[in-house]
Design goal:
two-stranded parallel ribbon; four-stranded parallel β-sheet; globular; alpha/beta
């Protein structure tokens, strides 16, 4: 309704072919249910135009995990006698329907997976297939949930997490590192994007009062990074963390933190001054 997204962890579903004792039939796997929700999302859009934000995940040990890994492998799905795959047609027409095209998907890796890695040094076949598929199509993503956080599985590849507060919101934006020339420009872009996000939390329309109240209390911002692999390639690096990348990320963190605090303080001061002026009160400058 409000664009916050629908997230479902389907790990409790039994594997396809598992007997249904009362009827003598067999269960279907969770992927048909994912596609059903996906199709609802295709046809029910916010304001009649905004595409749905849907998330689906499955535990790495689920009996249907290998089908899940291939669920968005559109490049291997032929379309009739056209000689083209779904991937080819989606390139020409982004809105052409395809399985789970309204849904972000991830594999959940839990404490069992982590302890297996600690014991053997092996990440396992599922993880390796996950990497191969993600390299081809960017999905499924990876959701790591260990120990006391093992049940916190409802976060997607964008690292959006469920808030502890009901009716919470987060204002999101991303910086494309592949389009930034140097570290000084990086600092300027981070500062501008952070200010934009804060101002957005003052102006954005929300559906009901509780959302306004919760936003006023938390005022969450999400400034993400994209284009990092392109940035590395431009500088002759492999897909790895480098000393230069560390410097850029330090600027990203430091400038965003500093700008968010200073901008928030300045806006609060401006609002207080405006209220004082409107009420005819004498304005006292804060320390």
């Amino acid at each position: 309704m409000i664009g916050g997204g629908i997230g479902v962890d389907y790990s409790v579903y039994r594997a396809a072919g598992t007997p249904i004792h009362r009827t003598g039939g067999q269960v279907s796997d969770p992927i048909p249910k994912m596609n059903m929700i996906n199709e609802i999302g295709r046809r029910v859009m916010q304001d009649g135009s905004r595409r749905s934000a849907i998330y689906a995940s499955l535990n790495w040990q689920n009996g249907d995990i290998h089908e899940f890994l291939k669920a968005k492998g559109w490049q291997h799905m032929p379309v009739g006698n056209t000689g083209k795959s779904l991937w080819d047609i989606k390139v020409d027409d982004f809105n052409f329907p395809a399985p789970l095209d309204m849904t972000n998907i991830s594999v959940n890796y839990d404490t069992d997976w982590l302890m297996h890695y600690y014991d053997t040094g092996e990440v396992g076949d599922v993880f390796l297939q996950n990497v191969r598929q993600a390299m081809q199509s960017a999905e499924p993503g990876f959701s790591f949930n260990f120990f006391d956080l093992e049940n916190e599985t409802l976060r997607n590849a964008c690292t959006e997490v469920t808030s502890a507060d009901d009716s919470d919101v987060c204002n999101l934006d991303s910086i494309n590192m592949g389009r930034i020339e140097d570290i000084r420009e990086m600092a300027e872009v981070v500062e501008l994007a952070t200010k934009l996000l804060i101002c957005g939390t003052l102006k954005a329309k929300l559906p009901y009062k509780k959302v306004y109240d919760t936003r006023e209390k938390n005022r969450r911002l999400g400034l993400g990074l994209m284009g990092m692999h392109e940035w590395l390639i431009q500088r002759g690096y492999r897909y790895e963390v480098t000393p230069e990348l560390h410097k850029w990320l330090a600027v990203y963190r430091g400038v965003s933190d500093k700008t968010s605090v200073e901008t928030a303080d300045r806006l609060v001061l401006s609002i207080d001054h405006a209220i004082d002026f409107k009420l005819g009160r004498r304005v006292v400058t804060r320390d």
